[in-house]
Amino acid sequence: MHESSKTNRIRTPQFFADYLSGTVLDIGCGPDPVVPHARPFDRIHGNAERLTAYISDTYDTVYSSHCLEHMSDVPLALSEWWRLVKPGGHMIVVVPHEALYEQGFWPSIYNRDHKATFRLDTERSWSPISYDLRQLAASLQGAEIVKIGVQDDGYNYGWLPAIGRRPRTLGGLRRFISRLRHSILKRVRSKDATAKWLNALMARWGIPTDQTHGGALAQIECVVRKKNL
Question: What is the enclosing helix (H) or strand (E) of 96?
């Protein structure tokens, strides 16, 4: 999924001018760099948790979209990325919002490679491996959070599973139904009548729907500036 392209739809020209016009390192971009001039770093280049073992240059912006959740040691990875930001530069991190993507279920139903979940300004979580993104960013040396928030463009909160029917793990039948729906309708846009009807029905049964396949955003974005120390 081209996550950066999806998010770029809601970004303003001023955002690109302020944060993405200089040198950019894009971590985990695959074939979808956030801007054409970004330097990519993906699995073929090495281990993103040990980024400074491969890269010594610093950048105006270090950017990563939907990569941090795949790291085994999230704080270590983030600190490595931060080391490559120039003083006065920025780090931009986009991660799935655990309440909107995982929706209370762990391991993640739609991406089994997720090793952590993320929340924003919530003290507790149902997830056994959850991080508050604001706290993570604030813990970085010399960090100043410029902006942080939930991005939910196109997301239908009425399709979230009913709380009273949302166990932490899915039973065999519910998991099968969720994956079957995901397989059959993953190319059907959320606005289509069949998808709308099925998603609403599944929510009443306590079964989640991956709305990101319909183009919705279900994520948190954080922009952090590195102070001149």
Answer: strand 85-96
Phi–psi pair at 51, nearest 5 degrees: -60, -35
Question: Which domains, and CATH codes, for the chain?
Answer: 3-155+213-226 (3.40.50.150), 158-204 (no CATH)
**pLDDT tens, N- to C-terminus, the chain (229 residues):** 689 999 999 999 999 999 999 999 999 999 999 999 999 999 999 999 999 999 999 999 999 999 999 999 999 999 999 999 999 999 999 999 999 999 988 889 889 999 999 999 999 999 999 999 999 999 999 999 999 999 999 999 999 986 544 444 455 565 566 666 666 555 554 457 777 888 888 888 888 888 998 889 999 999 999 998 6
Give start and end residues of each alpha helix (H) in the chain: 3-8, 13-19, 74-83, 133-138, 172-185, 193-204
- Quick one: angle between helices 193-204 and 172-185, nearest 10? 170
Structure letter (DSSP) for residue 224: E
- d(CA 225, CA 91) in angstroms, rounded, equals 7
The CA distance from 46 to 53, in Å, is: 9
